[in-house]
Design a protein that fits this description.
Layout: H1 3-22, H2 30-36, H3 39-51, H4 59-75, H5 82-100, H6 114-129, H7 136-155, H8 163-182, H9 189-210
Pfam families: YhhN
Main location: membrane
Organism: Natronospirillum operosum
Length: about 230
């Protein structure tokens, strides 16, 4: 690891810790937290754009998704912007789905992960279904989008395997956030959800960077990914 990489990872960790600390103490003005919250995602977007491999596809879709999520984080500080935050997050997942749905790896056993993912999504939706005042149509649409996103990442063959836990962390983060918002009862939910949120994006955005394409096919041909 060179000095630039070390500096990036150190700065990213410092930004994440700075947000978590300022978000949980009352001595810092809320404007500071509002500024710090989207910075880790923006830094990840710049790092990904800089190191993007030439053979990888749909860079714009992934970067647009990160930008939408960063925008959602920027407006989430105000409860009056809940609808805007929800719409930006949904558009972010649509962009992530567009990026991840570039290839389908049904020939690998990891497609079996789709079974617990679908069951988990159904259980999470059922847990929130009977909350009074909750718009069930929006809940279903959001849950379906997150589930399709996780499934697309699982079946994508052009990314490193770390994308799978990254997608699951993002989905679990959304469940914790939604459960705490509408039901409550999760101690330190904001801390846990944001740690999973940042960690999921970190793994997901490094998945195309760390992927090593295979140059061999099952029939013995050698692939040239530079074409």
């Amino acid at each position: 690891m060179n000095a630039v990489s070390s500096g990036f990872y150190l700065l990213w960790a410092v930004l994440v810790m700075a947000f978590l600390v300022t978000d949980n103490i009352a001595l810092v003005p809320p404007e500071v937290t509002w500024i710090l919250r989207p910075l880790p995602l923006l830094l990840l977007a710049l790092w990904t754009a800089w190191h993007w491999p030439q053979y990888q596809q749909r860079r714009l879709a992934l970067l647009v998704g990160v930008g939408l999520f960063a925008a959602a984080d920027a407006v989430a500080w105000d409860a009056g912007h809940f609808t805007l935050t929800l719409v930006l997050s949904m558009c972010g997942f649509v962009a992530y789905i567009t990026w991840a749905a570039q290839t389908v790896a049904m020939g690998q056993l990891r497609w079996m992960l789709s079974i617990p993912v679908i069951l988990g999504a159904m259980l999470a939706t059922y847990r929130l279904w009977y909350v009074p005042g909750l718009i069930h149509e929006a809940l279903v649409v959001y849950a379906v989008l997150v589930t399709i996103f996780v499934l697309a990442v699982i079946l994508c063959s052009r990314v490193h395997r770390i994308a799978i836990p990254g997608a699951i962390l993002l989905a679990f983060s959304q469940w914790i956030m939604g459960h705490q918002m509408f039901v409550g009862g999760i101690p330190h939910a904001a801390v846990y959800s944001m740690i999973l949120w940042y960690g999921g994006h970190f793994l997901l955005l490094h998945a195309p960077l760390w992927h090593q394409p295979s140059r061999d096919t099952p029939f013995g041909y050698v692939l040239d990914h530079g074409d």
